[in-house]
Recover the amino acids of this structure.
């Protein structure tokens, strides 16, 4: 194995690790980082990855990132929540990220949607909780989707090296 192949594999592994972490932490482009690891691993001299793999996974990554950013607010709207709840959910994702605490990263959409709904209509706590629960469900759905796609990318890239 050449030094170039070793360096490419090491870079790909680093991108895979950071990418998987990025699937959980909002703000880090998890699936695109994993895709970049796949792209890097495709340059290993004995990789069986083709440009078809690279292009298909690029399209999937873009789609997953778009869905991941829209799902929490979509679920909030679907539950009968207001625009304030949707905005609160989105703000909560980013606010949770900036705290650096894993619990707040996951609860950010819930708390944000709840606060947004309460600002919109402070008399309907049940509706605010319902909207917040759907927002949390949307966040978990988006995160799960990112993790599945990232895992498929990593598995595909690793299999191409053997």
């Amino acid at each position: 194995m050449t030094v170039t192949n070793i360096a490419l594999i090491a870079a790909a592994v680093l991108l895979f690790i950071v990418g998987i972490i990025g699937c959980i932490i909002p703000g880090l482009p998890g699936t695109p980082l994993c895709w970049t690891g796949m792209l890097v691993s495709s340059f290993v001299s004995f990789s069986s990855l083709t440009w078809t793999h690279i292009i298909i996974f690029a399209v999937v990554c873009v789609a997953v990132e778009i869905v991941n950013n829209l799902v929490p607010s979509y679920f909030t709207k679907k539950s009968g929540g207001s625009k304030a709840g949707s905005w609160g959910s989105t703000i909560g994702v980013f606010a949770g990220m900036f705290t650096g605490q894993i619990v707040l990263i996951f609860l950010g959409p819930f708390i944000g949607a709840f606060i947004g709904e309460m600002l919109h209509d402070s008399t309907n706590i049940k509706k605010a909780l319902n909207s917040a629960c759907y927002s949390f469900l949307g966040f978990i759905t988006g995160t799960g989707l990112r993790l599945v796609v990232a895992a498929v990318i990593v598995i595909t890239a690793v299999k191409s090296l053997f």
Remarks:
- The helical segments are 3-24, 30-41, 51-78, 83-99, 102-120, 125-160.
